[in-house]
C-alpha cells in the first residue's frame, strides 16, 4: 500500500517524509481504528482511507501542520472509523463507543464508573486529548511529538487532568457523604 501513497506525492522529499509518517503510525492508527470498529477488515479500510486522504492532500496539510501530521492522522482515522460505523448501520456500536468515550453527553453509567465518566467529560479538551492518547497506548514522548509539545508539558497536562478528576470526584463525595470510592 505504501507504494500507492508514495505515487501520489510530487517530490522525493515529500515521499520520504510521508514514508516516515507511515512507518511511525501504521500500527498505532490501526489499533485505534480496530478499537472503534471492532473488526480487523473494517479497521484496515479505515486506515487505508486515512492514509489516502493524507497523501492526496499532503502539500496542503504539511504546510498547515508544521509540527507534523501524526496527530492529524490519528484524528482522521478516528473520524473515518466512526463514519464507517454509521455507514454500516452499526448504531449500537457507535453509541456504545460514544458513551464510553464521553463524546456526546449521553447519560453516564450508574455508580462509581458513572462518576468517573462524568468527571472525564468535564475535562477541558487540552487535558482530555492527552489523557485519551495515553489511554490508547501512546507514550508521553510520542504524544509530545505528535502534538508539538515538550514531554514535560504533556506530563504536566496528564498530572493536571488526574488532579481535576480527583477534585471532581472529591466534590461529588462532599455533596453526598454516603458515597465514596
Structure in words:
This protein has 181 residues and is mainly alpha-helical. Helices cover 77% and strands 0% of the residues. Helix 2 crosses helix 5 and helix 3 packs across helix 5. The longest helix has 26 residues. The protein starts with a helix and ends in a 6-residue tail after the last helix. About 3% of the residues have low confidence.
Features:
181 residues, mainly alpha
Pattern of helices and strands: HHHHHHHHHH
* Integer average pLDDT: 80
Q: Tell me the total number of β-strands.
A: 0
Gap from first CA to last CA:
49 Å
Number of helices, where a helix is a run of at least 4 consecutive DSSP H or I residues: 10
**Strand fraction band?**
under 5%
Unreliable stretches: 104-109
- Tell me the helix content: over 70%
Reported for the largest beta sheet, the result is: none
Q: What is the global morphology?
A: globular
Q: Any idea what the radius of gyration is?
A: 19 Å
Structural class: mainly alpha
SSE order and pairing:
Blueprint: H1 2-7, H2 12-37, H3 40-56, H4 58-64, H5 70-87, H6 91-101, H7 111-121, H8 125-135, H9 140-147, H10 151-175
Entry summary:
77% of the residues lie in helices and 0% in strands. It is mostly helical. α2 (12-37) packs antiparallel against α3, α2 (12-37) crosses α5 and α7 crosses α10 (151-175).
